[in-house]
Amino acid sequence: MSASVAGHWDFWIDRSGTFTDVVGRDPSGELHARKVLSENPEAYRDRDAAVYGIRLHLGLANGEPIPAGLIGEVRMGTTVATNALLEHKGERLALVTTKGFRDALHIGYQERKKIFATEIIKPEALYDDVVELDIARTGARVMFMMSSGGLTAADMFQGKDAILSGPAGDVVGLVKTGKSGKEKQIQVTDRGLEALTRYSEIRERLLVEATKVSGLSQDDLSGIASHLRALSGYYEQAARSAATL
């Protein structure tokens, strides 16, 4: 469906290593979803799945220029960088950390998958060099983004919180961290609540559209949902029982 001249389209994109999901909202407010291969050089002249998905929404031919003013906003999250990090691809990396924590990731939690193994082979480090910063000397308030999308003070930040997974675009500020005594607390901000409400609305609309083609009635869907919840409960109970054997 092409956009009207008076309005514009907005897009939300999730680009992973295999597929790219492109959700578009046309000028009338209707939502549309597309899923394309993240890499398909034979189909994408510009080798960009996100742009290709946008062109599909706009009804443009492959390689056709996108008219100025037709798009209002594009938000994109990607796991490509995390995948490249885990696969040791791309540019060389350096670890920037607080002074005194050079070996924190190397030491880890002392967890051992095989506790009786006499030879421990650790995975190769993701970084080639370490840069230590003396934060105390600056007097500045330093905040780090965690994998949950929230911000936390430098003295509460841990290495395991550093790797982002899933779409991370525009998630900073959706949650906030605090401390009550020795307990760490995470709270949803007003902006986070707004995003959650909007996400629920989008998910519901997409789900309703998907169920229309299934031929199932509302009662049928309710029955299926009830059975799935029951099966989930049985599975959790079996897992807990198995853990005690």
Automatic annotation (TrEMBL):
Limits of the Hydantoinase/oxoprolinase N-terminal domain = 11-134
User: Which Gene Ontology terms of cellular component type are present?
Assistant: cytosol
Biological process GO annotation list? glutathione metabolic process
The source's domain of life comes to Bacteria
Task: Specify the Hydantoinase A/oxoprolinase domain's residue ranges.
Answer: 137-190
Which molecular function GO terms apply here? 5-oxoprolinase (ATP-hydrolyzing) activity
User: What is the protein name given in its UniProt record?
Assistant: 5-oxoprolinase
Q: Which organism does this sequence originate in?
A: Rhizobium rhizogenes NBRC 13257
